[in-house]
Structures are given as C-alpha cells and as structure tokens.
Amino acid sequence: MNKIYSKAMDGVLLHIINKLKDISETRVDICSDEQYLQVACFKMNEGKTFKAHKHIENIRETTITQESWIVIKGKVKAILYDLDDSIVHEEVLEAGDCSITFLGGHNYECLEDNTIVYEYKTGPYFGQEKDKVFIEGKDA
C-alpha cells in the first residue's frame, strides 16, 4: 500500500494506491475509520465465509466526495494532485489495483483499449456544478 501525503500541507493524507500483489489472506482496512469512503481488501479461498449480516441505518454527514477506482482489465495511469493542484504522484494501475482519493484532485488516462474499471464514490451526487471543480490547465 502506498499512502500519498500532501507536500503543500504536512501530514494530510490525500490518496492511497493498493496493488493486487499486496493483498493477503489477512483483512486490511485500507481507509481509516474516520474517512467517508471505507475500503478493505483480503484474499478468500473456497469455503471461506463470514457471518451473514445487514447494516443498521445511521445518519451520516459527509463534507467532500471521496472516490476510488478499481481496475478490472487493462491499464490506467493515475495522475494524483495535491491540495495546491500540483501533481503529487503518478502511477500505472493494472488489473486488480485500486486507487483511493480522500482529498486533492485526480485524473486517469487509459493506456489500453477495452480497459474496464469500477468507480466508487460517496454520495449523493448533486451534479457537476455543485460537486466538482476542474483543475485549470489540466484539460484532457
């Protein structure tokens, strides 16, 4: 797991990259409990299970959208931004790899045809005008 911290503001965790090769049979909570987006990873062998459950309704308040990409097939270059909109990290993600953005910006460039990703983010979504601002000079 690669934790990417802000260079503009000491100690602020912006992004996490988790690679498929780093996943083990022990559950790893990638995100700390106070983050809005919760992601964990672990390998499971045939027959492995856990106690059936459902989640209790709770009122939760979020102040920012956090987002995660999981590459299913192909390759994607993750371009991750700091709080001051400077590029803080770039990394190629392959099948099974995951990126998580808590703060700062991000952009992704597909490096292969037919690349497939899952994108997860906190909601609800209020539309582009209320939910995101584009980083100047970083247009695709």
Q: Keywords, please?
A:
140 residues, mainly beta, three-stranded antiparallel β-sheet, 1 helix
Secondary structure topology:
Elements: E1 2-5, E2 13-18, E3 28-29, E4 40-41, E5 67-73, E6 75-81, E7 87-94, E8 98-101, E9 106-110, E10 116-121, H1 128-131
Antiparallel strand pairs: 1-2, 2-8, 3-4, 5-8, 5-10, 6-7, 6-9
Structural class: mainly beta
Query: How many strand segments?
Result: 10
- Classified by CATH, the class is Mainly Beta
The CA-CA distance between the termini, in Å, is 28 Å
Gyration radius (Cα, Å) is 16 Å
Tell me the helix content. under 10%
Beta-strand share of residues: 35-45%
pLDDT under 50 segments (min length 5)? none
Describe the strand arrangement of the main beta sheet, using strand numbers.
Answer: 1-2-8-5-10
The main pleated sheet reads as: 5 strands, antiparallel
| Topology order in helix (H) and strand (E) letters | EEEEEEEEEEH
Structure report:
The model has no long low-confidence stretch (mean pLDDT 93). The protein contains one helix and ten strands, in the order ββββββββββα. With 140 residues, it is mainly β. 3% of the residues lie in helices and 36% in strands. The longest helix is centred in the last third of the chain and has 4 residues, at 128-131. It has one domain: Jelly Rolls. The strands form three sheets. Strands 1-2-8-5-10 form a five-stranded antiparallel β-sheet, with no helix packed on it. A three-stranded antiparallel β-sheet has the order 7-6-9, with no helix packed on it. It has a two-stranded antiparallel sheet with strand order 3-4. The chain is globular. It starts with a strand and ends in a 9-residue tail after the last helix.
